[in-house]
Specification:
Length: about 525
């Protein structure tokens, strides 16, 4: 719901920022207000630029991180989110007040900025531009899986809006000390800011190096890209334009979402053609890894989505969830292990390997429940797998949070044979709910799974390597004392945002201090 009145104060009428209590308090409806960062003398205003947020619209982990990290930082910094006004955002139950207007630039249309206050106090700035964003589908494409052909315009507009807000052009009475942009859709934010000589520092976080937003050089005039940007140190990428490279080239600092991935992407095997560029950023101290966490809703003792809540040691409670998952997927009753796949169905996730080991799992008395959507060919293969093994393998093409959570709670093992995994959240969710991941030893999986203690890691992207890890999982399943000991360790693993909040907060403060120092010297 959008209120058409231009609110020139730029603040929500009923809930002005700065009027909330210093600590979280419960408000009617059971919601909790975010704490305010007033106690922190180094408090910064941070604009968090993203293409998804789980509260409103998500296709994967970026949405989860965008919902959790600004909230986890609320006691230290004033972090506000900027997101395009897709239908899922505009038609959510939270009112939107128009607070500013931005003019067009090159082929990027003019737009409005709306403000949405989430019930817990998180402020979301909504980029309203119906011709670009009001379309049925995902943030990136139509429901048939095809990307929108004008994504370069759609997300350039997002980047430019962030730059405009940082330059106070929107006059929304809030100007960030730092802009934190995420993945290729926000890549042009640091770029426009650099080209316009804006001094506000920028942080760019890579959640997935493989999605780069590459377009033809012919788009330069439409996007208002200056000629000097078309060089190796700029956004030129093998004779094209890369939004991702723009973010990395012009940001004051780059992070990615795990320590191992930060190192991997500087090698040819994982660098997607950018390894040399990233290795040089690492040498200059401009690239670091900060792991994601998981939020407090991942608690099996309180999660309202579960058919039966359970605590560490209550394996009957866990079994009740397993029975529900078997029923939901049309699987036979069984005493064997239940494996879950909760995933975007894309090449990255190594689903072809799971397809190849499925027969082994079924012959060893295991069952598999699969939920997800993604590339049409991958969806087809998963459907075919379920047809091959009725009662043993079940597939739901689609996604919903309740089913996903029930699957983490009901399964014994989570299959995650990713070819690469920048961080991965599903393996942390699974562990928290007592499902042991069987996963490739790469990226964030390597950093968050203790091999043989909280899950099973395998090194090679091959059926043989995967099958060895599965054999170990079956052996553990046959010894309930061992299985339960591993479940206890997994459920108690300390995944939360605390570990990430401190390094991000420090980085925000350092980058702002550095930019102020530079400005003072000029
Ligand atoms: P990625 O971001 O690469 O998909 P993560 O493990 O970081 O992997 O995050 C996965 C998150 O996205 C989890 O919350 C998971 O439940 C959710 N998810 C998985 N598949 C889908 C899907 N097809 N659509 C929407 N969300 C999904
Ligand atoms: C990406 C990555 C995933 C990561 C997520 C959130 O989608 O594929 O590994 O956990 O972003 O950072």
């Amino acid at each position: 719901m959008i209120s058409a009145v231009l609110d020139t104060q730029g603040e929500h009428p009923q809930q002005p920022a700065g009027e909330r209590p210093a600590h979280s308090v419960a408000v009617p409806g059971g919601k909790t207000l975010l704490p305010l960062a007033r106690q922190n003398p180094n408090r910064k205003r941070v604009l968090f630029v993203t293409s998804e947020i789980a509260d409103l619209v998500k296709t994967g982990g970026l949405g989860d991180v965008s919902a959790a990290l600004p909230r986890a930082m609320a006691h230290l910094h004033d972090v506000r989110v900027l997101i395009p006004g897709y239908p899922q955002v505009l038609h959510s139950e939270n009112p939107i007040h128009i607070i500013g207007e931005l003019s067009g630039h090159a082929a990027l249309p003019a737009c409005q900025i709306g403000r949405m206050d989430m019930p817990d106090g998180l402020v979301i700035y909504v980029l309203i531009c119906p011709e670009l964003y009001e379309r049925e589908g995902t943030p990136y494409g139509a429901n048939n899986g095809r990307d929108w052909p004008d994504n370069h315009i759609r997300f350039a507009r997002l980047g430019l809006a962030a730059a405009d807000i940082a330059a106070n052009l929107a006059q929304i009475h809030w100007c960030p000390d730092l802009v934190h942009a995420h993945d290729w859709p926000a890549g042009l934010a640091p770029a426009y800011m650099h080209w316009r000589g804006q001094r506000t520092p920028t942080l760019f976080t890579i959640h997935n190096l493989a999605y780069q937003g590459v377009v033809s050089l012919a788009s330069c005039p439409e996007l208002g890209i200056p000629e000097h940007a078309l060089q190796q140190e700029g956004m030129e990428f093998y004779g094209k334009l890369s939004f991702l490279k723009a973010g990395m080239a012009y940001a004051s600092h780059i992070t990615t979402v795990s320590a191992t991935y930060a190192q991997e992407i500087t090698t040819p095997a994982f660098g997607c053609g950018l390894d040399g560029f990233l290795a040089s950023k690492t040498q200059q101290g401009l690239l670091s890894g900060i792991p994601n966490g998981i939020d407090e809703s991942w608690d099996a003792t309180t999660d309202p989505h579960l058919v039966c809540r359970f605590s560490i040691g209550d394996w009957d409670g866990k079994a009740a969830n397993a029975a529900h998952v078997r029923q939901m997927f049309g699987l036979d009753a069984s005493n064997g292990p239940l494996f879950a796949v909760v995933s975007r169905l894309v090449y990255q996730k190594g689903l072809d390997l799971t397809e190849a080991v499925a027969e082994f799992i079924v012959e060893s008395a295991g069952q598999i429940a699969i939920i997800g959507r993604g590339e049409p060919e991958e969806e087809q293969s998963m459907r075919a797998l379920a047809r091959r093994f009725p009662g043993r393998i079940g597939v739901h093409i689609g996604f919903n949070e309740t089913d996903a959570r029930r699957m983490f709670a009901g399964s014994d093992f989570l299959l995650m044979p990713s070819r690469y995994e920048p961080c991965g959240l599903s393996q942390m969710y699974a562990q928290r709910f007592g499902s042991l991941p069987v996963a490739r030893n790469t990226g964030g999986l390597a950093d968050t799974i203790e091999n043989g203690v909280t899950g099973f890691l395998f090194d090679e992207s091959t059926v043989a390597s995967y099958q060895q890890a599965l054999t170990r999982a079956f052996k553990v399943f046959a010894y309930p004392a061992l299985l339960n000991a591993m479940r206890c360790r997994a459920m108690a693993a300390p995944f939360n945002w605390c570990k990430a909040v401190e390094p991000y907060a420090e980085l925000y403060e350092q980058l702002v201090a550095k930019a102020l120092g530079q400005a003072a010297r000029q």
